[in-house]
Amino acid sequence: MCSTFHFAGLSLYFEDGHDDLDDFGFDDYGSECDGIRITAFLDAGQDNLTPLGRLEKYAFSENVFNRQIVARGLLDVLREFSDNENDFISVMETVARMSEDGEPTVRAELMEQVPNIAMFLHESQPNFPAAFSRYLVPIVVRYLTDPNNQVRKTSQAALLVLLEQGLICKGDVESKVCPVLLDLTEPSSDDDYKIEAVAIMCKLVTMLSRDTVEQLLLLRFCELCSDARLFQVRKVCAANFGEFCSIVGQDATEKLLMSKFFDLCSDSLWGIRKACAECFMIVSNSTSPGVRRSKLSPLFISLISDQSRWVRQAAFQSLGRFISTFANPSSTGLYFREDGTLLEPSPCPASSTRCSTNGPTERPPQANQDGRSTPSLESMSRGASSADSAHTPPRERREGLACHHSNPAPPAAAHGRSKETEHTDDNFNSFHYWRPPLPDISEELEILKAEAPRGQPGRVTEGGAGSQIQKVLDCLQPHMDDPDVQAQVQVLSAALKAAQLESQTEAEGPSDSQPPEVGDGVESSPGGKTTELSDEPPSQQAGEPAPTGEQEHTQNVIPQPLLDQYLSMTDPARAQTVDTEIAKHCAFSLPGVALTLGRQNWHCLKDTYETLATDVQWKVRRTLAFSIHELAVILGDQLTAADLVPIFNGFLKDLDEVRIGVLKHLYDFLKLLHAEKRREYLYQLQEFMVTDNSRNWRFRYELAEQLILIIELYGHYDVFDYLRQIALTLCSDKVSEVRWISYKLVVEILQKMYACGAHDLGLNFINELVVRFCHCPKWVGRQAFAFICQVRTEDCMPMDQFAQHLLPSLLSLSSDPVANVRVLVAKALRQSVMEKAYFKEPGSAYSDELEETVTALQADKDRDVCFFASLDPSRALMDTAALI
Predict the structure, then answer these.
(1) Distances in whole angstroms, Cα of residue 722 to Cα of each of 266, 389, 683, 710, 717
(2) Where are the HEAT repeats (predicted)?
(3) Which site in 309, 428, 431, 588 is 20 to 30 Å from 693, CA atoms measured?
(4) pLDDT of res. 119
């Protein structure tokens, strides 16, 4: 055999002591000898050397190829000597000596094996606890300064793998790795070494603890950001600036890093400014709201107005992400589940049943591990990001459109609340999860009304109500970061000014022109206008007058210039001068911007959203279609019905590339609508059966998956009248994947019937299944019937109903001529029937027939049928997917 020949040839070569392996080189063996054992040189030969001696001989052979072979096979060598500690230590000492080989290819081969060797040592740590730290870590660190470029690159890659896998202890990183990186980044260091060291240090920082970064690397990083000689160093620092900020936190970012970031954003090279624009969101997340608003916002405006088109392009792509850092969860009232789904806390907990027309109730929000209460916008626009991943830049996909907000962690009391308390405490308020509650001003407002002059309850005086208003304003000052508080302060400030002005007018005496009388709850304002006193902030909800003129895009959540620039992204001129896909970036980040502004400021984005929804580029409309369900959660039911439903209906009639976006989240959108509005879509579900390309079977597969979820949103009569026909049509699809998922849909519909007590509808459906599938002339139909019986669960229908209406037809298929049908019959009988106590009771009408059928299947000529008929029911359940 080839392998035997080559083993013998290799051994003969070593035994004869030749130093030329070219005649028996591995490259000459061909692909048939891929399984050759590299460590064959350790086998006993004519040299009378021990395996360790043979290793020593060839590890330091004069022939370079011999040394390469030894380096390449080190992992296998260690395995062979791992039983004896003394031999193992000898091998490790040999490796340490080999690391000093003068041939770069040998050193590179050795370094490529280090991660595998480290993993082996990690698994064998009880026997060799300090071997890796003592022998291999010094090699990795030394190779970082190797004169050969290939060796250095290999050591850098190995170091990152070791850190990612947690194979280097913290002590070794601090005492061995970081000092070398600091030496290589000294001002006097060689340029090539310095650039490489900066890159590896920036990658290293994300794998280290905060204390290690602050103590060892932070100050050096600040120096490197100002490197005036090497623009490559500044560019690497700019590209990784956000990672440093996120690791060291807010204090260090504002005290040490912020000034460096300003310098990099105004660097003379456009590539460095572009890198700053790309990481702007992460930097913003690491600053306080005040710094974000007063310093970072003007800085970002300068980048978005940069003279370089590439910088402006990067800035516009990051604009939505930067805006999302202004998000305040306390004002949105929304929270995220662990899977990234955006939800609104239910006002009252309710259990979910199969007959319910509403979705399940989720538990109240909880903060993330880092104390931030608003997770990434990528999770909110998951569908859009996954669907457009092929067209999205890698950094954008990696960062997502994150809207982490640097709010402090929730109070300990909120964390300590149990799930039971969350659902039973009548005083529970998810608002308190994000910050301490605002002061209650209801009593002060009552005092305002009580102290108003008689006959004019809304009027206030300086001596009484004016002072009370001022007290309330003083109480609200610590909470001015919240947009809701800002709106409330504006209302109270206006009332205070009106009170002071009126008091001044009354002191001067009555004027010739008296303002008209006002009723309860109304005050007089300058100019004779009347304003209503209210303890609620002004709202822009549906049903109220829409803002006009200058108020159309006015809000106080984010700096207005940022919003103006964002709204300009739909301007065709931007596409010509900045980026042809700028509208797509605008659409991608719109849910995050809408969440940041809150539903009370939806009027600022409504026109922009409608413009994007009618964009000529289908990619823009597709992006909106994938995220419209999340936007509906943000806006609430009233705004959704008024502004999103018409656009949703338009997407339903769009190209398949757009329709798939709404289809993938059809359940998520429909569950947000009122029951009457939701029922209107029953007539349109059938339209999803028609696609632009009939071979687009994944479209129909997705429809079946969504219908399984949608069943719970409708009553059993609607399910029977509308969804049943779609399910049966999908069960006859030409593609097997669509058919199998449709069979599960049929079972879910059957469960719906019996769970809601609609036994008559369930029986009609069963009869239809028997006629359509059990008596189907095609074997795939009969197999489908057996599968439906197999996945039927005990809560689907009573066992007596199953025995009476489904079991006889299932037993009739036990003698089907097609083995694939009999296999599923065997599995159904063993898994869903035989273990049920109902059929084991004495006198059961089908117990004898069942035993006979199973016995016959166990003696079937087909091996698979015999196997599943004899298999334990629990094993049969585990092997279901294998057959399908």
Answers:
(1) 62, 35, 8, 12, 8
(2) 296-334, 806-829
(3) 588
(4) 86
Cβ-contact 587, 624 below 8 angstroms:
yes
pLDDT of residue 838: 55
Question: Tens digits of per-residue pLDDT, 717-740?
Answer: 999 999 999 999 999 888 989 999
- Region of 405 please: left (phi>0), alpha (psi -120 to 50) or beta: beta
Q: Are strands 522-524 and 342-343 parallel, antiparallel or unpaired?
A: unpaired
User: What is the dihedral sign for C-alpha 712, 718, 720, 722?
Assistant: negative
**In the chain, how long is the greatest CA-to-CA distance?**
127
Q: Are 790 and 832 in contact (CB under 8 A)?
A: yes
Dist CA 282 CA 619 (whole Å): 27
Flag the least confident range among 40-44, 517-521, 809-813.
517-521
pLDDT tens across 366-397, in order? 333 333 334 444 444 444 444 444 344 333 43
CB within 8 Å of 798: residues ≥ 6 apart = 754
**DSSP 3-state assignment of 328?**
coil
Estimate the crossing angle of helix 231-239 against helix 241-248, to 10 degrees.
Answer: 50
Give the pairing of strands 530-532 and 522-524.
antiparallel
d(CA 780, CA 784): 6
User: Which residues, in sequence order, are bridge partners of residue 340?
Assistant: none
- Of the pLDDT bands very low, low, confident and very high (cuts 50, 70, 90), residue 844 is low
**What DSSP character marks residue 618?**
H
Q: Are the CB atoms for 445 and 535 separated by under 8 Å?
A: yes
Are the beta carbons of 392 and 452 closer than 8 angstroms?
no
Q: How many CA atoms lie within 13 A of 705 on its CB side?
A: 14
Is the per-residue pLDDT at 321 higher than 90?
yes
Helix/strand/coil (H/E/C) assignment for every residue in 341-390: CEECCCCCCCCCCCCCCCCCCCCCCCCCCCCCCCCEHHHHCHHHHHHCHH
**Nearest by Cα to 600 from 557, 550, 643:** 557
Sign of the torsion formed by the C-alpha atoms of 639, 641, 642 and 647? positive
Give the pair of three-digit tokens for residue 46. Answer: 């004519």
pLDDT-wise least confident of 303-312, 712-721, 782-791: 782-791
Q: How far apart are CA 343 and CA 634, in angstroms?
A: 8
The answer to whether 233 and 217 have CB atoms below 8 angstroms apart is no
What is the pLDDT confidence band of residue 707, given thresholds at 50, 70 and 90? very high
Class of CATH domain 1-168: mainly alpha
Q: Is the pLDDT of residue 324 over 70?
A: yes
pLDDT band at 846 (very low <50, low <70, confident <90, very high): low
Burial (CB < 10 A; 0-12, 13-18, 19+), residue 443, is exposed
Grade residue 199 by pLDDT with cuts at 50, 70 and 90.
confident
Hunting for tokens 């739909």 — which residue is that?
570
Flag whether the pTM goes above 0.85.
no
What's the confidence (pLDDT) of residue 80?
76
How far apart (Å, rounded) are the C-alpha atoms in residues 814 and 833?
14
Long-range contacts of the stretch 202-206 (C-beta < 8 A, 24+): 202/236, 202/237, 202/239, 202/240, 202/243, 202/244, 203/160, 203/240, 204/159, 204/160, 204/163, 204/177, 205/240, 205/243, 205/244, 205/247, 206/243, 206/247
- Domain positions in the chain are 1-168
What is the arithmetic mean of pLDDT over 481-488? 59
What is the three-class DSSP state of 227?
A: coil
**How many Cβ atoms from other residues are within 10 Å of residue 867's Cβ?**
17
Average pLDDT over residues 427-437: 43
Chain centroid to Cα 101, Å, comes to 47
Angle between helices 618-639 and 582-597 (to 10 degrees): 20
**Amino acid in position 251:** D
DSSP 597-616: H-GGGGGGTHHHHHHHHT-S
Q: Which of 45, 124, 62 is nearest to 92 (CA)?
A: 124
pLDDT at 40 over 80: no
